Amino acid sequence: MEGGHETTGGEDDDEIIRKIRAGDVDAFASLVERHQHRVAGVVARHIPPSFVAEVAHDAIVDAFRSLPKFRGDCEFSTWLCRIAIRRSCDFWRARKHDRDGVSLDEVSEEQQRWLDRASLASSDAERERAASQGEAVEILDRVLGQLGPEDRMIVTLLHLEGRAIREIAESLGWSEVRVKVRAMRARRALRGYVEKLLEKKI
Amino acid sequence: MSDPKNNLEEVLRAAHARRTTQELPSAFSQDVMRSVRNAGLHDDETIWLWGAAWTGTAAAVAIAVVLLGGFLESAPGSEWFGDPLGLASMSFFGS
Fold it and tell me: Is the pTM of this model over 0.95?
């Protein structure tokens, strides 16, 4: 997620930001071109593919509006990715009632067979093979769909991506203690859903 | 034999790592810039100044209403044209 001190044509992010603050709104286009794919990459890890462009768009516009608050104590790209993560969380908050319709009980025969294979995959090669199949993301999204917006973000950032507590706290604008408490709860919930899926087949 | 729950979690973690970013629409950056030009900078000082201006305007209107109420009540002949808006009752001048 962290970006370097990027430059294009001799201008780094800080110089462009100074121009924007001085009233040159069009200078922001350089930052969009430079960082749009990184933002989309962050968003794509949290949001269904069909909504990625929309959420990435909103995150970048948010960043522009909030530029006066950017103090430069981290890379612009890091700050932008934090906004993208918060926007992704907002996406699920706005749809928190949708998860009521996602059930762990409605697993297809193909998904059941995949669960059999995945739960027995003990080597890296077997895991990678199982992870590459379409059912893997279907089951993953079904499990994540059981979680609330904040728990979903915590599980994704901490347990699936292995990010540091401090980094997550900065991304979500939470205290580290709050992240730890939510992480424990979310982890327990995730474990419960995985068990429930396996109980159905064992 | 390894724990099925752990195996499944590891596979789900690997599945997440394989999520890929699809291409953004070709007009993505132009769309963003269009929105940006309409948005304007979200400057705290500007917001504060606008808030102060609106509060000042609202206070001026409220004072004008109270003064007008007092004027209508005390004006010569007010008993003939009355006070259709009921402003006199809002006056600090009393009856």
Answer: no
